[in-house]
Design brief:
single chain, mainly beta, Porin, 8-stranded antiparallel β-barrel, 10% helix, globular
Length: 121
Amino acid sequence: MKKILIIFILFFSSSVVAAENDVYYCETEKFTIVKKNLVETFKNEKFKFKRNENTLQFSGTGYFGNTVMTIEWGHAESEWFFGNYARTDSFNYKNGIFLYTFANHIGESKIVSILATCDIF
């Protein structure tokens, strides 16, 4: 009976681990833009992305639109990966939490900060 229970747990627990080609549905909890004399806080926004071998492919409207970001480190079966977009943006995903930052001095200097929770489907 113990062997059957262990096999059952191992079989079904592997399905909750993220893998390539999974689609992540996310909603921001905090979305702010900091400028020299101003901090703007935006309403929560939903977005989704597909995790490929070396990229995150965002789709839809909103802040991320149809952006593709490069995964610098991660494992196909890991719930932790991070990377960047154009070396000015960075993201970090771990166990359902997606963090994103953008810092730039081109044009108006600003910092964009996003914290979102995600589910995998």
